[in-house]
Design goal:
By secondary structure, the protein is of the alpha/beta class. The radius of gyration is 20 Å and the shape is globular. The chain is built from 16 helices and ten strands. The strands form two sheets. An eight-stranded mixed β-sheet has the order 3-2-1-4-5-8-9-10, sandwiched between helices. A two-stranded antiparallel sheet has the order 6-7. The longest helix has 24 residues, at 187-210.
């Protein structure tokens, strides 16, 4: 994992000590990279340092000696060659503005956030480019559960950047024997796929909570993908991206696994629990809950229909029952499937 020219002698800073940031720290630290894991919760950081594991988010996954956890932004970012941002989307802007003065001018920025910035509905790479302008920006995404990465199970992801050389450099720097990275230049497609798959996962969870069966789940995944593609293409993405790891791969994983936060939340709401009660039982954040309003705002601007996302929003925030949402979807006017392909 040593990059040509010795650039990886510089440390990697990971902003965000949740499950995904911690898993990436473990993966990179295991390969011998000098890792600084930053978290804003000092109590959590002190616990991580004392126990050498993140017991709140990834219990049972010890941190390698090369990982140093800190709540000091300057210490985390000092001399960093790569800065990976792995905080929930609705916190990202505030965290970036707080840490911006400490980010080295020459650092390469990597978003590992699967969501949209809620205030202005920006993709996270756009936010990075605005708050930390003049630095190379890339996006890391694809089908990945944090625990499996932390334990070294095989994972394949996408590293996307408009600058192909930046993507190749990060591919060499961040990959490992069980952590395969494919490059992609379609940053828009990768980010839209990453954000919206969480909404579809909530939808499949709602259906599973009602006991609608495997057929219904397959239909929701497929039609959900059609919605994601429609919006992505309208925003300038490449259609082929959505058939790859960042698109279909991540969508299927998130919509079908019991490890998925978004799917699990949907299941619980589908069984009659209140959203606030479900969210209050875990420190984990289901990004789809925060993303659905942003996705619908982008769809409105682009003139794109997203009926599944609309019904998820109506259930989560509008008081609509899951049964009524299902009836609304089934009552839609029949149409040719290929219309979605032309959109």
């Amino acid at each position: 994992m040593t990059e040509a020219g010795g650039a990886m002698a510089r440390p990697v800073a990971i902003v965000g000590a949740g499950s995904w940031g911690t898993a990436l720290a473990i993966h990179l630290g295991r390969a011998g990279t000098d890792i600084r894991l930053w978290g804003r919760d000092r109590a959590l950081i002190e616990e991580i340092r004392a126990k050498e594991e993140n017991g709140r988010y990834l219990p049972g996954c010890p941190l390698p000696p090369m990982v140093r956890a800190t709540a000091d932004g300057a210490a985390a970012l000092d001399g960093a060659g790569i800065v990976i941002v792995a905080v929930p989307s609705h916190f990202t802007e505030a965290v970036l503005e707080r840490l911006a003065p400490q980010v080295p001018p020459g650092a390469t920025l990597v978003s590992a956030v699967k969501g949209l910035e809620p205030r202005r509905r920006r993709r996270i790479s756009e936010l990075l480019g605005e708050v930390l302008s003049g630095r190379p920006v890339a996006v890391l995404s694809g089908p990945s559960f944090a625990r499996e990465v932390a334990t070294g199970l095989p994972t394949a992801l996408v590293i996307a950047s408009a600058d192909e050389e930046v993507a190749r450099r990060l591919q060499r720097a961040l990959a490992g024997p069980a952590f395969r990275l494919y490059t992609n230049r379609d940053v828009v497609g990768v980010e839209i796929a990453a954000a919206l798959k969480n909404i579809v996962a909530i939808a499949t969870g709602l259906g599973d909570g009602l006991g609608l069966g495997e057929n219904a789940r397959a239909a929701l995944i497929t039609r959900g993908l059609a919605e994601i593609v429609r919006l992505g293409v309208a925003l300038g993405a490449q259609r082929t991206t959505f058939a790859g790891l960042a698109g279909l791969g991540d969508l299927v994983l998130t919509c079908t696994s019991t490890q998925s936060r978004n799917h699990s939340l949907g299941v619980q709401v589908g069984r009659g629990r209140r959203l606030a009660d479900v969210e209050g039982t875990t420190p984990m954040i289901a990004e789809g809950v925060r993303t659905v309003a942003s996705a619908l705002a982008l769809a409105s601007r682009a003139g794109v229909e997203m009926p599944i996302c609309e019904e998820v929003a109506a259930v989560l925030f509008g008081g609509k029952t899951v049964t009524a949402a299902l009836e609304s979807l089934l009552a839609r006017e029949p149409r040719p499937e290929e219309e979605a392909r032309r959109a």
